[in-house]
Each structure stands twice: as structure tokens, then as C-alpha cells.
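Deliverable D4.2, example record:
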Amino acid sequence: MLYVPRSIRAVATLLAAVSAVVTIAAPAGAGAVQERIDRYLIDNPGGIQVSATDIAYGDLIVTVVRSAAAGVPDCPSGWFCFYDGANYTYPRGKLSDCGPQDLGTWNWRNRVASVDYQSSTGSVTFINETGATDTALFTASTSRRRIPDVAPNRDKADYVYRSC
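Output generated by the structure prediction step:
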């Protein structure tokens, strides 16, 4: 049996681990992206695919696959975005309208875990429907644009109200 020094074994193990992480983090091919879009549409019917990664549900645009680096907020200017996971994990929903909106219209109730507010004015409050009186959970605005984790209110928002 060949003797391999511990330091070389450690480096080989590290390289194997890094290689596995790089493989997992590598962008999906066009076929895999389309499969994710198709799966999202099956799980959330009523949308229309409008680009390689986006589905429109009326006013809401859902981006199913991230094209930028993971863990980085990427809401376009003029929109407010909410993410299905903490630290801006996709899928991402984005809206720009003012006033109240029911996230259930687009199957987004109880899914918001992080937010990014990129409108030039106003604010958006995320609201939990609790019966006769609803509960304001948190607000994103021009002075608090990014909330990477809305805990302890993660997965509780049912509505949004945007003040313009």
C-alpha cells in the first residue's frame, strides 16, 4: 500500500469538497432552467412565462432562477421584491403597484423571508391576516431598503400595503 502523508490527504479532501461545492453552485443549463420554470407553473398555475427565467401573474413577476450571485439582493429599480428564502433566496416576487395587495392572489402567502425595496419613494408594509384586526409585521422603505431575514416574521405575510 502506498503511503500518502496526512497533509497531502487533507489537501486532496479539501479539493474534492471545493469541487463538489463548485459543481452544486454552477449555473443550471437552459434545459434545467426550463424544467424549474415548468415545475413552478405546475405548482403555481395561472402565470405566463415572459422570459427565460420570469413568469408574470398579472402585476406580480416571479423570477424562478437567479442570474446573479446567490445571497445578494437584486431587486430592479422601481420595484419592491420579496424572496422565498432568507438572504434573498429564489424564487423572487416583485411588485411596483401602490395600495393593498393580497399575496394569496399569486400563491405567495406565508412565503416571504427577505425583502429588497428599490422604489424611489414610499414604503411597503407586510401584513399578517389575523382576523378582525390584521398585524403589520415589518416595513421596508427608502430608509430601510434591505432586510435579509425578516425573522421572527418569516413566512407570515399574507398582504402588502405600499404607500407611494
